[in-house]
Structure formats: structure tokens, C-alpha cells
Amino acid sequence: MEVQIEANWKNILKDEFEKPYFKALTEFVKSEYKHYTCYPKGSDIFNAFEFCPFEKTKVVILGQDPYHGPGQAHGLSFSVPKGIPMPPSLINIYKELKDDVDIEIPGHGNLEAWAQQGVLLLNATLTVRGNAAGSHQNKGWEIFTDEVIQKLSEEQKGVVFLLWGGFAKKKSKLIDASKHHILTSGHPSPLSANRGYWFGNQHFSKTNLLLDAQNKKPIVW
Length: 221
Description:
The protein is of the alpha/beta class. It has one domain (about 5-215): Uracil-DNA glycosylase-like domain (Uracil-DNA Glycosylase, subunit E, 3-Layer(aba) Sandwich). Helix content is about 40%, strand content about 10%. It has ten helices and six strands; from the N terminus they run αααβαβααββαβαβαα. A four-stranded parallel sheet has the order 3-2-5-6. The chain has a two-stranded antiparallel sheet with strand order 1-4. α8 (about 165-170) links the parallel β5 and β6. GO terms for molecular function: uracil DNA N-glycosylase activity. It is found in: Cytoplasm. It comes from Psychroflexus aurantiacus. It holds the Pfam family UDG.
């Protein structure tokens, strides 16, 4: 299958597309989309890469699964298209953003503007069956997205990785902490946030301080 992905990412990851696991993953995903309602729509699966080319990536925000409700997932972790109600985790992200950098909470949950500034909004698993959270886990996506993280670690410098929650924190082993920045906290989901593991992490202001120290343009959150 010809993978439709941004040109520089395609070049960086070209070896992955030829590996047996990725070919098996492709067949699995094609079958799932044929027989079930799956998200995001096929043309949006690689949106994180389309909006944030490899050489422009300054920040990585790692999610686990796409949203599995109608109209929610569009290929960017934690983001939903305009007009779709904001999920609880995204609401808590916005609350922390307001407390941290005093930005008014927008009336939509579309994070494309972040991605266009160099924030890779990457889910570990890029597809999901409708109303079945985790249904496409352990089919090969994690191998692929782990390679994405490792390529950034190996070939870039000074990327800020925001790892929220236990699942994301495990990815720190893929990152060279001697040349990148890793910020961790609890997950913004209500279960974690309400226990005090999310609010007050100040990741948005800390990220911009780290970027500014490298003479990189801060993110307009």
C-alpha cells in the first residue's frame, strides 16, 4: 500500500513501510475499515505528520488512542474538529493552559494551530473501531509510533516531549534525555486530574521557556 504521509516523514520512515509488521498492520486496518465504522477517516490517519513536518517538530504531545465517538478523531492527539463537543481531557488541558499562561479557553477543541507551529500531536495508536476503545492496540501501530519517537530523538535536538500519564511516561526510554527535554505529569483525564496529578504542572509555560532558551520560537498556545 502506498502510504499517504508528508514527504519528509515519508523519507525518514520509508524503511518502516516495508517491514512485515507494517504490511500486516495495513491489511488489518483495511479490513477493519471495510467491515466496521472506524476513526479517524482514512484521509486523516496521518494528519499529525501532515500538519507538523519532521524538520519543524519542536514539541511532542503523546496520546494513546484516537477518540472513538462519531466525528471526534481527526488524526491529532487530544484534538477534535470545530463544532464537536470538547472531551473531558481536553477541557482539563484548556483549564491548565488558562491557569498557566492566562489564555482564555477557546470555544472549540481543534488543536491544528498548535500542530502548524511544530507541535506533533501523536497518538501511539492511529486508528480505532467506533465505540471500542483500544480495539486497534497491539496490532503494530505502537511499533511504528515508537520508531517515530526514536527518529526524532536520534536526528533532532532540543525537542520538548510532554508525557502525560503512565502510558506516555513509559516512552521516555525511547528518548535521549541528554539532548532533549522530557516533562512528565499525570494525565489530564478527570480521574487523574481530580486526584491532583495534572493541574499545576505548568507544562505550557515551561515548554516555551525551554524553546526560548534554544532561540526557537515559542508556541502560541
